[in-house]
């Protein structure tokens, strides 16, 4: 992440499992990321993290380390509950990639050249076409589908160098997309990178969105579970309770660490009156 982005995120974040998560509201997040897209130097990688991603990060040290260097936006009710438990308030906005990225493309008035990587060829081509209809002042270029050699990605990176995009949107699923971007995408490939999971499936129409009322109630996860119970039941039926268990355990262990720190270092906490006497 470039220095400007890093400073801004440090000024407005809250930690979940010691991972800094941006706590900007919807409008402020749009303005902030639009500014990042305008910076002529450095690179910022934006990722969207939900409860499932957080559990993955707890098990995968490499993924956790990569995420700690990215701009992390909160996605879903699980992160809100974690924030409520850890910090006493939910996040100001649900900045999920499926809603935020199309809104960001609309908000961004300056024309940009935007590259797409991920999904099947038909899905990413359809997503690009729908993006063109949605925001015709931008130029969308399909760099590659998601079915390429991840060990030797030179064909894809060479195409990126040739296309000279401003922004890169990568949709290959977590944690593969974040790891691949970290290992392969340089600042001269794209100044702003958005890792978006299944966004292309939704934008192309290959996977239907939940009705608007359901999305406003933040229950799209339940709608998706009903649509794909075989694939998603472990993530939601088992994953959410496991995630909440880890949140509660982290909160109390963190409190114990904070309270025990002064004693371990020979500076045991004193009642307020004793501090006044000592002074």
From TrEMBL:
Keywords: Glycosyltransferase, Transferase. The keyword Zinc-finger does not apply. The keyword Transferase applies. One of its GO terms (molecular function) is hexosyltransferase activity. It holds the Pfam family Glyco_tran_WecG. PANTHER family: PTHR34136, UDP-N-ACETYL-D-MANNOSAMINURONIC ACID TRANSFERASE (PTHR34136:SF1). NCBIfam families: wecG_tagA_cpsF. This is Glycosyltransferase. It comes from Rhizobium anhuiense.
């Amino acid at each position: 992440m470039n220095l400007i982005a890093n400073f801004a995120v440090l000024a407005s974040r809250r930690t979940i499992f010691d991972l800094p998560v941006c706590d900007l509201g919807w409008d402020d997040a749009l303005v902030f990321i639009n500014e990042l897209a305008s910076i002529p130097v450095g690179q910022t990688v934006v990722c969207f993290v939900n409860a499932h991603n957080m559990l993955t990060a707890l098990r995968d040290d490499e993924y956790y380390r990569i995420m700690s260097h990215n701009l992390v936006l909160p996605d879903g009710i699980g992160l809100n509950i974690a924030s409520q438990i850890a910090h006493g308030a939910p996040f100001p906005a649900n900045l999920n990639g499926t809603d935020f990225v199309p809104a960001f493309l609309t908000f961004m008035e300056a024309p940009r050249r935007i590259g797409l990587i991920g999904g099947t060829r038909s899905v990413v081509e359809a997503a690009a076409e729908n993006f063109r209809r949605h925001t015709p002042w931008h130029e969308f270029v399909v760099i590659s589908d998601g079915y390429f050699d991840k060990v030797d990605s030179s064909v894809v990176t060479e195409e990126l160098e040739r296309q000279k995009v401003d922004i890169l949107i990568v949709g290959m699923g977590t944690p593969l997309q974040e790891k691949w971007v970290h290992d392969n995408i340089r600042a001269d490939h794209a100044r702003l990178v958005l890792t978006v999971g299944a966004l292309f499936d939704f934008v192309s129409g290959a996977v239907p969105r939940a009705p608007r009322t359901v999305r406003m109630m933040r229950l799209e996860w339940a709608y998706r579970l009903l649509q794909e119970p075989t694939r998603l039941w472990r993530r939601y039926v088992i994953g959410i309770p496991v995630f909440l268990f880890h949140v509660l355990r982290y909160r109390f262990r963190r409190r114990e660490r904070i309270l025990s720190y002064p004693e371990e270092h020979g500076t045991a906490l004193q009642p307020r009156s004793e501090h006044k006497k000592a002074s």
